[in-house]
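Can't paste images in this forum, so I'm doing it all in text. The chain is below; anyone willing to post the predicted structure tokens underneath?
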Amino acid sequence: MFNGLRRHVQLLVAFARNSLVRDMTFRGNFIVDCISSLAWLLMNLGFYLLIFFHVRSIGATTGWGRDEFYVFLATTWIINSIVQAFLMPNAQEFSELIRTGGLDYALLKPIDTQFLISFRRVEWASLSNAVAGVIILLYAIWKLSMRTDPPWELSLGVGLLYVVYIACGVALFYSLIVCLAATSIWLGRNQSLYDFWFYITNFSRYPMEIYQSGWGIPLWYIFTFVFPILVIINVPARLLAQPLSPRQGWEWGLAIFAFLATIASLLLSRWVFQRALRSYSSASS
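Text version of the structure:
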């Protein structure tokens, strides 16, 4: 098992290195991509700066003040940039692999097919968003550390849980991407993958409290317990930002649910992918 794990890690490093060499071959394009991504983030940040110029928090009793929300925003950028760098480029090319017969060659490789087609390409420019997210996160933590009412403290355990739930968020997104990409085998082409991805993940970009009233309640139930999109950003951001003090008991319950949902989603996506492969017909047949 350890040899297999080491082999997969070595392959992932090789994929990342080859992608970096490819990106550096066209450095001008790489720089423009980074600038474009950062410009979008700055416009996004400016929008929220404008909002907090008029209000002190998102909701009177939610605890999501400006600094707490910056933790949420930074967490969104970090998770989305990892997904955009490592997962989306490969998912978008999956239908082309089917059409051109590239999937035939992937199936013949002495490595797990899902791993190969999921991580063979890395878009390094997208990681510029993660760097910006880390900077905003450190700034928000610094501001929260000076808060006295209620006091905010960062413990080693909370910091480790934050990293763990960042990984859980990426894994949940990965599961969704795999399920969407696998439909290309049945549909032949799935050009609407990115559009559907954007629509469905838009729900994760805001604190879940905004859905907990009126007609938003059904959305809160669906995207928390049926399709656990809301827990992807909310759980790690809530653990670190601690918008409510003292902590509410349901926050830990939500964290446990998010961990179990991650495991279940990974198993489901694996089953969907394997089931789709059994329906695949070779491009030469």
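Residues 12 and 75 are 24 Å apart (CA to CA). The chain has a mean pLDDT of 86.
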